[in-house]
C-alpha cells in the first residue's frame, strides 16, 4: 500500500497531496515540494499515512527545508508584500477598474503572478510595463472569477466557519436557484449568497436528501391517510423526516413518513399480525389446499406513495386494488 501526506504552501491554503518517500515528516514540519518552477517550501498538514487504494502519481518530497530554503522563503514573502503594494498603487494611478486579490512569486525564476478581479475586460498593458520596471522582474496578470477570488482570499461564511472553497473544496460544482426552492429556503439574496456574491456552494450538499425525500412521500397537495384520519399534505419537514398533513377533521399533524406510506398501511390492513404465518406455509384457498398463503413483507416492498381514500382497507383484495391504482398514477414514487 502506498503512503501519502498533505502539505500547504500558506497557512490557510489549499491542501496538496504528496508521497513522503523515505521521509517521515510530522505535522508542522517544513518540507520541500517539487513544482514546475523548482522545489518550494511547504508545511506538512497531515502526517504520512497508509492508503488502501492507488491514488496515482504523486510528487515525492525532495527533503526537509534547510536554513537556506527557509531564508529564501522569507525573502519571497517580503517580495510578494512589496509587489502587492506596488500593484495597488499603480492601479490607482492608471485609474483601472480592477481589484488586486493576490500575488504569487517564484523564487527560482524571480517571476510574479498578480491576480485581480474586474467586472469586464481590462486593458492592463501599460500597467504591466510599469510593474516590470518597478519590481525589476517579469510580471504576469491573471483575472479571476468571483468564486476563485473568494477561494484565494479566504474568509468567514454566514455559518461562522471558514469558507468551504478556501478549505476543502477542490472544484466548483454548479448551483442553481432550484436547489434553494427545493429546500424551502427564503429566496433572499442576502441569505443564500456567499462571500463571493454567488449562490452558496453548501446549497448542493443536502440537495440529494431533499430529492430522495420528495420522491418517497406524497407530494404537497396530495391526499394522504394518517393515524388520526385522512387529510391533505401541506408541507415536508425533511430534517425531521416528517410530512405535515392538514386533517379533514381539522388541525394539522406532523407524521413520520412511514405513517403516510400507503403500501405499508395496505399491507398491515390486509395481513394483520395475528394472521401472519411463516413464509412457505400453506392455507386452504378457494382453489384447494395447494394455494399458498401470501408471504409476510410482500406489501412492504411496494413504493411509498399517496393512496386514494379507502385503498388498502378491509381485505387482501383491497391490497390488490391499491397496487392497481398505484400503477395507474402518472408519477409513481420510489420505495420509502
Automatic annotation (TrEMBL):
<dbReference type="Pfam" id="PF04468">
    <property type="entry name" value="PSP1"/>
</dbReference>
<feature type="region of interest" description="Disordered">
    <location>
        <begin position="266"/>
        <end position="336"/>
    </location>
</feature>
<dbReference type="GO" id="GO:0005737">
    <property type="term" value="C:cytoplasm"/>
</dbReference>
<dbReference type="InterPro" id="IPR047767">
    <property type="entry name" value="PSP1-like"/>
</dbReference>
<feature type="domain" description="PSP1 C-terminal">
    <location>
        <begin position="58"/>
        <end position="144"/>
    </location>
</feature>
<dbReference type="InterPro" id="IPR007557">
    <property type="entry name" value="PSP1_C"/>
</dbReference>
<protein>
    <recommendedName>
        <fullName>PSP1 C-terminal domain-containing protein</fullName>
    </recommendedName>
</protein>
Amino acid at each position: 500500500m502506498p503512503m501519502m501526506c498533505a502539505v500547504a504552501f500558506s497557512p490557510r491554503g489549499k491542501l496538496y497531496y504528496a508521497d513522503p518517500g523515505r521521509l517521515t515528516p510530522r505535522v508542522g514540519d517544513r518540507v520541500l515540494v517539487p513544482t514546475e518552477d523548482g522545489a518550494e517550501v511547504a508545511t506538512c498538514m497531515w502526517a504520512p499515512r497508509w492508503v488502501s487504494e492507488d491514488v496515482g502519481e504523486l510528487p515525492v518530497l525532495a527533503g526537509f527545508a534547510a536554513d537556506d530554503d527557509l531564508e529564501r522563503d522569507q525573502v519571497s514573502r517580503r517580495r510578494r508584500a512589496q509587489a502587492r503594494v506596488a500593484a495597488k498603487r499603480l492601479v490607482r494611478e492608471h485609474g483601472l477598474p480592477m481589484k488586486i486579490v493576490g500575488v504569487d512569486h517564484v523564487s527560482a525564476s524571480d517571476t510574479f503572478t498578480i491576480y485581480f478581479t474586474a467586472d469586464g475586460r481590462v486593458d492592463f498593458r501599460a500597467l504591466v510595463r510599469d510593474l516590470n520596471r518597478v519590481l525589476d522582474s517579469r510580471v504576469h496578470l491573471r483575472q479571476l472569477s468571483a468564486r476563485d477570488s473568494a477561494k484565494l482570499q479566504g474568509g468567514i461564511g454566514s455559518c461562522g466557519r471558514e469558507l468551504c472553497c478556501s478549505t476543502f473544496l477542490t472544484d466548483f460544482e454548479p448551483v442553481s436557484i432550484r436547489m434553494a426552492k427545493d429546500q424551502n429556503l427564503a429566496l433572499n439574496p442576502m441569505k443564500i449568497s456567499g462571500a463571493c456574491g454567488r449562490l452558496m456552494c453548501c446549497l448542493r450538499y443536502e440537495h440529494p436528501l431533499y430529492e430522495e425525500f420528495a420522491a418517497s412521500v406524497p407530494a404537497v397537495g396530495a391526499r394522504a391517510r394518517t393515524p388520526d384520519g385522512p387529510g391533505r399534505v401541506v408541507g415536508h419537514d425533511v430534517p425531521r423526516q416528517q410530512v405535515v398533513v392538514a386533517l379533514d377533521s381539522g388541525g394539522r399533524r406532523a407524521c413520520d413518513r412511514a405513517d403516510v406510506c400507503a403500501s405499508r398501511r395496505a399491507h398491515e390492513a390486509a395481513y394483520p399480525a395475528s394472521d401472519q404465518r411463516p413464509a412457505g406455509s400453506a392455507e386452504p384457498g378457494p382453489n384447494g389446499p395447494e394455494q399458498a398463503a401470501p408471504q409476510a413483507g410482500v406489501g412492504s416492498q411496494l413504493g411509498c406513495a399517496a393512496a386514494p381514500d379507502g385503498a388498502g382497507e378491509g381485505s387482501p383484495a383491497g391490497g390488490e386494488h391499491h397496487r392497481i391504482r398505484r400503477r395507474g398514477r402518472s408519477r409513481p414514487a420510489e420505495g420509502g
